[in-house]
Structures are given as structure tokens and as C-alpha cells.
Design goal:
CATH architecture of chain A: 2-Layer Sandwich
Strand content of chain A: 15-25%
Structural class of chain A: alpha+beta
Helix content of chain A: 25-40%
CATH superfamily of chain A: Dihydrodipicolinate Reductase, domain 2
Distance between the termini of chain A: 22 Å
Oligomer: homotetramer
Number of helices of chain A: 10
Order of helices and strands of chain A: HEHEHEHHHEHEEEEEEHHHE
Radius of gyration of chain A: 19 Å
Strand order of the largest sheet of chain A: 8-7-3-6-5-4-11
Largest sheet of chain A: 7 strands, mixed
CATH topology of chain A: Dihydrodipicolinate Reductase, domain 2
Chain lengths: ~260, ~260, ~260, ~260
């Protein structure tokens, strides 16, 4: 990324910018200094259902948002070689949920509590990582969010988000890949969504279209360095909470002035 | 039933009143003469979903009703001994659909075309009966309805009705008995509704409550002799259409003056 | 198309080849004579749900197919100028269903009965057309199919197909465009699929990929001239049935020897 | 209850036995001493979907249970007079979830963390209570559970439970009261379940049938004093966690020897 900045190239960056907060802050500062455009690859924001949810929330149709439940399960764990370098559950996987709940809530997090276990495979414990996790977040307006993850569903990719407001709720999710029910003596059956490339195929296209439009317009509109930093800071908070077995205050990972 | 009428007892009668139109007409005349209350057991009218559908239609919320699709499949065929005395598919099974579409449409049928096959079991053909059938009905306002039946679903009881109006539609149906999804490597699964006693458990209770209230009030409000006759007349029309391989006019089975 | 054939170009043709059977037969003969590849634009065959359904049927997983219910409603009627030249409901709209049920059944139709009405707009009656229709089809193995159509749903594009076999059933359909439920005091709500371009966006891409692969391989694998002719012949049968108010035999529209 | 025990009457008790743990322990001891039968009113255990879920879990069909998500929202808050005496969110409402997750998990809780807010109505804060809450629980085998509640959904009664095992998952829930979709220009709509009496109508009947059978057999099979105590102890733990803003160890509320 440093090379791109030096060359004055605009940067579209897959999440996360970096696995540590310091490098993230340096990259953001470099982008600002270079005056280039930047977009982080939080593709979920460009999924039609999530985009419609955000629009409904912004419109006030749901009233004040009070609670968000966000769940994500991968079909199965990645190989150990990947786990060793990915930064752990919170920086690698939950980071999408951290961005999602913060984006939908439209507020900043204040407190975090994380509870995790290694249940899926002993290698997670060996690496000091967890494969099953619950993260509770209190936002600065006392609204709450809870994120739960697993590295192995055994039933495909499970991505569902529920937003509860004072006037109503939204439930985003998808159990079936194909709109077909199969009925037999055992009951009614559908197929399932395999993984993120299938679930978010359209979102990946849209996020690049938004990015190209941003370059053409000379103005970035997508998730930016501040969003990327906020998500990685939440990962730090979750890790600290788990290590300290305590509620942690997000101000410990505030952005540099 | 004759005995009940002579004794002046009110009569709640399971469908059909009789397997032939002449006996049905005689029973209706006897009820009228005896001045007793009468209700026919079209329990589907008392199911919460169907009752709500009828109320929405009557309220005008769907605009003019233009088309109704009504489907019913039994989990498996009844024993041959039952088939020999039940009056055939149209008087025994489709009769519920005949009442349902006429009741929801709120109009009288004008023309009927039936197409049937014996595919499930050779005994249906041996008995001159069909086990798989499509009946098309034109009502007196040119609105249409189509009913399809099978004597064997192999996936539980399948009762679904769709009502299409100029302003919108209703889809009544139920694939799962229990509101529980089961997810595994094969996909997402639900159980199914076993048969009519399970699907219409509440409706059977409500129809009796309505009947008891009718007796207490001295005034019947449920489906009556005229409804029973209209359904059996449609069964006659479907049988004639199948035998004659032709569109038939419902006026051939008009009620006696 | 004649020009393309003369030039020896392979032909991908949107349905129908022609609005009359004679021109269709001439085109098919010309394609055969020119030795060029041909594919007709029945895109539904390339939709993931329909393709999976066909594969399940072919695999025998559903047992013998006994009945197919196929429904299609457009959100609203096309302009009168289109209706005047489109060939009427059966050649313009139902033709997709004719191909669909014949393809899924894997058998040839033997008898057809059509019942239609003009309920949506008086212009349909003025043009001698119908806007609401039920077509019953008996196949050469006595299996049945029923197709119902409307030129106006008022609730988006409604395309659903149900296949009933001796061992189980498939229900293909899609009520929601986005996998999001919205809950409020009125109940639970989803959006709907707007029209065919949205519903079959992927299928249009896949059918062209299949066509390009066919040209590269020098061998067509998609729906061909025989399929196109069979669908238009069913439209003829439905029109004749409606005009004659009678069951018609499909052999009246057999392909030339 | 003391009177019943003195009189030697069997006791069916609505949850909770008492609002404090000491009285609960005294009641349990009195029941034991009197040698009478006892059943606590955790009706959810008798709902067909929950009962089927428990049976599937016990059968091993889901493998090892790793995570449970349990959510419950009331349509709207109870009156202040009720809130003043009900014991607060955790003893009054979450107690059902505490029993549910412990029963489905089949393990004992080890650690609890609770995060709550008063967002729905200021009276909750005035009473020192919360109306929106997340409770994370670690069980003695490191499996996790998360419960979230709200005192006001504005969209009916929301009771859904998700169980994730090493081989698959169960999602129990019900958005619609009546199996009817309504489609119009706005989308597809269903009604919703009003409140607990509607959702658990069958469960209330079954729990009493089980209780009557227990009396006849002289042996209680339903949720007992130990279950009642475990649920109230979890409420204590959640309250302490909220007050102390810390993870708490369940052994602080162990049953007396």
C-alpha cells in the first residue's frame, strides 16, 4: 500500500488494512497525506438487502435503533496455515460484523465484552484463538449489539442480521441458495448458501462499481479509513476483553488526534 | 338424518349430505319442512387463515376476485373398501375444494371442465375413478378457478389456496407443522403437516362452537344446505365433464324450483 | 433469420421463432438445410432453480412425474400497441409455460383444454384476446399439467412451478427479491420481484454462455427448433380449444414429416 | 404454597417459585420434606417445536451443542404497577430463557455476563430495571449461549431459539400467526403472533396434561424445583453482572448442600 501511495495511486483495500492498529493508523495518515482516494472492502454494505436496511434505518422508518443481532458462521474452518497468519477470529472474521453493526447503528461503540471458546477444533486453542464467540457491544447512546460467530456451521454460510428499532425490526438472512422447496416423506427441504463468494457475488460487483465511480468523480463514497480503523479497534477491544475476562472501554483504542 | 328431522332435532351433517343429488335435495326439503337448523361440515371455512381470507375478500381489500387456485393432496390413498363406497374423487375429496372456491369467490359456477388420470394406483382405474385431477371452473362473472387434487402426495397433507384479485393476492398454505428449521450439510429442512385432523384441528372445534351458538341463537350461520347442494352439483359436473370429455354447463344440475 | 441462414451464421433466436406455425416450420427446415447451430431463448431452463429441478427429475429422485402446476403473472399488462402484434396470450406469454411443463415432464402433450377470460382490461376482449387463463394438458403417459396466467398481478412478477412425482415434489418460486423481512405492527413484510429481467437476470447470462460454448464446440445443447415448435403448437392448441370450447387433440398440430 | 405443602397437596407452580433465592430454597426443601409432587410452569418445554428440538438434541442428531441463541421480545411493556413487583427483567422475563438454554444445553452454567439498557421507557431506569438486555453464558463444558430481550417489539411476540451443534443447527421461531401470505404492490405480508397466550396455547394445555399424568402416576416428569432454582440463580447472576459490570461466576449462587 505504501508503494501505491508513493505512486499517487488510489487504493481499494481488502479488509483489514493491516493486522495491527499502528500500521492501520500509519496507512490512513499516508492516504490523507497523499491526497488519494481510499475504499475498504466491506462488501456487505453493497449487498441489496443490507443496503436497503441501511436506507430504511436512515429514513427513520424503524424509529430509534435499540438492538442489533449479527451472526456469521463459516461452513468450515480455514486451514491451520491461514489461521496462523490471519490475526485471529476477531481481526479476520468478526471484523465484518464489527463494521456491519457500527454502520447500521450509525453510532460509535463505547464498551465491549467478549466471551469465546475453542470447540470446533483443538488447533484454535493451540493458537490462542477461539472458534466460537459472543461479543456484546454498548454504543454511545446505550443501544446494544451482539455478534456471534462460529468457524464451522456444517450447513453452509450463515450470515444473518437483525435490527430492532422503536417502531419495528428488520431480519436480513438467507437460508436457501435456490428458491426451490423439495418435499418428501421426511418434510420440506431447501439447499443452502455455500460461502461468501456465492452469498455476496453481487455485492462484490457493486462495491467495485462504486469504487470506479468514486475515482471518476474524484470523491470516495464507500467505507473509508475511519471505518476500517473503527472495525480493527473493535477487534482489539474484543481481544482485550477476552484476555482480561472483563468489560473494556473502547476509548483505550481511540484514534490518534 | 330422516329420523332426526322427524324428531325435530337440529342437524349438523358431515359432508356430503348424500352421495347423490336427489337424496341431497330430499334432505334439504325435509330440513326446510321440519323448520330445523342445519349446518354442513365444511370445516375449512372455520380455519383462521381461510376465515381471514374470506374477510379480506369481503372487505374489498383484494379488489375484484379474478382467479382462485386451490390444491389438495392427501398423504396417501384410502383403502379400496373406502374407495368403493365414497362416491369417487369428486364427491369425496374435491367436494371440499368445490365449496372452498365457490365460498371464496362469492359467485355461482357456470361452466366446468375436468381432466383426470389414474396414476397413483391401478385400483382407481378399476373402480372407474381418478386419483389425479384438474378441474377448471368459470363463474357467472367470468372469473376462473382451478382445482387440482391427488390421492397421494408422499409428503403429508397438502392444502393450499391462492386468491388473485385486481388489487392483490392471498396465498394460504402451510408446509411445516412445527415452526422449526433444521439445518445440516444437506440444506434446510422442516417437518410437514400429517393430515386433515392435524391441519384443521382448530377448525373442527370452531365449526362446532359456531353450530352450538347457532342452536342457542335459533339461527344457523354456517354453511347450509344450499352450500352442500352446490358442492355436490359441482362434483356431478366434473364427473360429466370427464365422462363426456367436454366442457359442461352447470345449469344441468340446477336446484329444483 | 433467413438472412442469417443464407450467410451461414449460427442463430440464437428469442422466442418465438415466428408467430405462426408455418413460418416456424420453414425456419426450422432452413436451419437444418444450412447446417447451422440454433438455440431458442427459453431462458427459464437456465435459471439455477429450474435447472436443479430438471436434474432432480431426470435423476429419478421424484419418481414418476404425475402433475405439474405452472403459474405466471406479469406485474401489469403491456401497452395496446404491443398486444396488437404479439400474437395473443398463448403465443406471447404462455409459450414460456408450454416449454417449461413439456421440458420438465420430458413427455409430449396429447390433449389440451383452455379456459380464458378478459377481466384485467377491456382491450383484451376487443382484441379477441384473454388476460386470465387456465390451460390443462394431458401428456402421452396420462400425466397432467395445468398452467395459469394473468396479464396483471399488481404484486410484481409471479413465476412459480410445482412438480409432483410419485416420491415427492418440488416447489419453485420466489416471493421476495431481497432476503429481508420487515416486521412492524402490521405484521411481517418482504419486497417482491419486479419483473422477468430481475427474476431471470442470471438465466439470461447463462443461456448466452451455453450458446457461446455451443458455437465453440460446434454442437448446440440448449432448447432447439423442435422445442420452439412444440411450444408454438401448444399455443395453437390452446387457441383452438378456447375458440371451440372443447378439448383438442395435439395431433392436429403435428410437425411435418 | 406453604399451605399446600402442609395439606399434603401436590403443587404446580407458575414461574418463579419466589422472587428470591432464599424463599425458593425453602420452598424446595418443604416440597422434599412433604414428599409431594412438584412441577414449575416452564411451558415452553411443552411446545411441539421446543419438545422436538430437545428430542433431536438428546438423540445426538446435532452432535455436540456448541452455541444457543435465544431471543424473546414482548409486544409492549407491562404497566408500571406490574414492573414494581415483578422482580425485574431477569426474574420476570429472562427466566424463561434461562430455563430454555439450560434445558436445551443439558449442562450447568459456569459464568454469566449481562449488558442492559433502559431504552423503551424511562420508567425502567427509574425502577433500576432494564428493558433491553444481552446475557452471555458459558456452560461447564465451555459451550456458549446468548439471550437477548426487549420489553417492547412493536411487532408482536418474538420468541426464537437457535441451537448450533457440531453436526447441524435448529432454528425455532414463528413470524406468522396464520399460514397466509398477502401480496400487493408493497410486497408480501403476513400477520404476526400476538403474545404468549397465542404462541404457547398448546404448550399450556400439554404442561397441565403432563402434570395430571404425573399425579396419576405418582411421579413428576416435568421441570422441577431444581430447574426452577437454576433459572432464578441465573437471574441473580445476570443482576450481579450488570451491577458489578463484570463477568460473574455462577458458583456464587450454588444450591445449599
Amino acid at each position: 500500500m505504501a508503494a501505491a501511495e508513493e505512486a499517487g495511486k488510489h487504493v481499494f483495500c481488502e479488509k483489514p488494512i493491516a493486522l495491527d492498529l499502528e500500521a492501520t493508523d500509519r496507512a490512513i495518515a499516508a492516504v490523507a497525506k497523499a491526497g488519494i482516494l481510499f475504499q475498504i472492502g466491506f462488501q456487505r454494505r453493497f449487498d441489496p438487502a443490507y443496503a436497503k436496511a441501511k436506507a430504511l434505518i436512515t429514513s427513520g422508518a424503524l424509529g430509534t435503533i435499540e438492538h442489533i443481532r449479527d451472526t456469521m458462521r463459516d461452513p468450515g474452518p480455514p486451514p491451520r496455515a491461514y489461521l496462523e497468519v490471519c490475526g485471529g477470529l476477531y481481526r479476520d472474521m468478526t471484523i465484518h460484523n464489527f463494521d456491519c453493526v457500527r454502520w447500521l447503528m450509525g453510532r460509535e461503540p463505547r464498551e465491549v465484552f467478549a466471551m469465546g471458546s475453542s470447540l470446533v477444533d483443538p488447533m484454535f486453542a493451540e493458537l490462542g484463538d477461539v472458534d466460537t464467540s459472543i461479543v456484546s457491544i454498548r454504543f454511545d447512546n446505550d443501544a446494544l449489539a451482539v455478534i456471534d460467530n462460529s468457524r464451522r456451521s456444517n450447513f453452509g454460510y450463515d450470515v444473518r442480521t437483525e435490527v430492532f428499532g422503536s417502531k419495528g425490526a428488520l431480519l436480513i438472512g438467507q437460508h436457501a441458495d435456490t428458491p426451490m422447496l423439495r418435499l418428501d416423506a421426511e418434510g420440506t427441504h431447501t439447499d443452502h448458501v455455500y460461502f461468501f463468494l456465492e452469498r455476496f457475488a453481487g455485492a462484490y460487483i457493486t462495491e467495485l462499481q462504486v469504487w470506479i465511480a468514486a475515482i471518476q468523480a474524484g470523491k470516495a463514497e464507500g467505507p473509508d479509513g475511519r471505518d476500517a480503523r473503527a472495525a480493527i479497534a473493535l477487534a482489539y477491544a474484543a481481544e482485550a476483553s477476552r484476555a482480561e475476562r472483563a468489560l473494556v472501554d473502547c476509548s483505550r483504542w481511540s484514534a490518534p488526534a
